[in-house]
Structure to design on (210 residues):
């Protein structure tokens, strides 16, 4: 069907979804074009992420208007698991940062990459824990303004996506540099390595965002 006519009264689509119908009058089919962060036949569901995310896991398992104690086993397990992983990941990333914060560890580009990667890991773990409680709280309280949900969706997911790409690229750069150092052996230039790392760090965010 061709849905090219805007509904006169948009009482069908939720969350500011755009209502389209197949005929200007006497229509028999309606289509909702949802905004970011919403999906469903009527744009009634809120979720968006990178593959299977907390939104997807908790969407149908969270009991509205209930406390955390009264939530399902999936919600409790997710909260317990992430709260357990959070301090471990934070400590691991912090130790990595302390190691590569030393100037001797940054005589080559790989040390610079790994130092930044440790900072990014701290940010990822922190954002993940914030997102957990944001998603859980908003699902437990259906009365929360939809604009707040959209802000959370448009803020957390792009940040996580960007940071994950940055971390993956830095790890790739480390692997490439180590391979080059093995091939060049004594001809490997530490100064050139640091110089190259500086340019890569400068241009990489623009490359990812593009």
């Amino acid at each position: 069907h061709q849905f090219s006519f805007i509904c006169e009264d948009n009482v069908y689509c939720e969350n500011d979804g755009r209502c389209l119908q197949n005929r200007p009058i006497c229509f028999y089919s309606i289509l909702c074009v949802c905004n970011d962060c919403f999906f469903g036949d009527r744009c009634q569901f809120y979720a968006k992420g990178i593959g299977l995310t907390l939104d997807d896991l908790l969407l149908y398992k969270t009991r509205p208007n209930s406390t955390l104690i009264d939530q399902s086993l999936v919600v409790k397990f997710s909260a317990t698991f992430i709260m357990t992983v959070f301090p471990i990941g934070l400590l691991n990333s912090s130790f990595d940062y302390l190691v590569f914060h030393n100037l001797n560890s940054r005589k080559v580009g790989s040390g610079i990459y790994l130092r930044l990667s440790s900072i990014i890991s701290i940010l990822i773990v922190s954002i993940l824990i914030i997102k957990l409680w944001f998603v859980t709280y908003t699902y437990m309280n259906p009365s929360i303004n939809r604009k707040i949900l959209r802000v959370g969706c448009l803020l957390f997911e792009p940040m996580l996506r960007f940071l994950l790409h940055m971390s993956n690229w830095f790890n790739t750069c480390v692997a490439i540099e180590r391979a080059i150092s093995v091939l060049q052996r004594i001809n490997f230039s530490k100064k050139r390595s640091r110089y190259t790392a500086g340019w890569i760090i400068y241009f990489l965010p623009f490359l990812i965002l593009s």
Observations:
- The radius of gyration is 24 Å.
- The longest strand covers residues 18-21.
- The beta strands are 5-6, 18-21, 30-33, 38-39, 45-46.
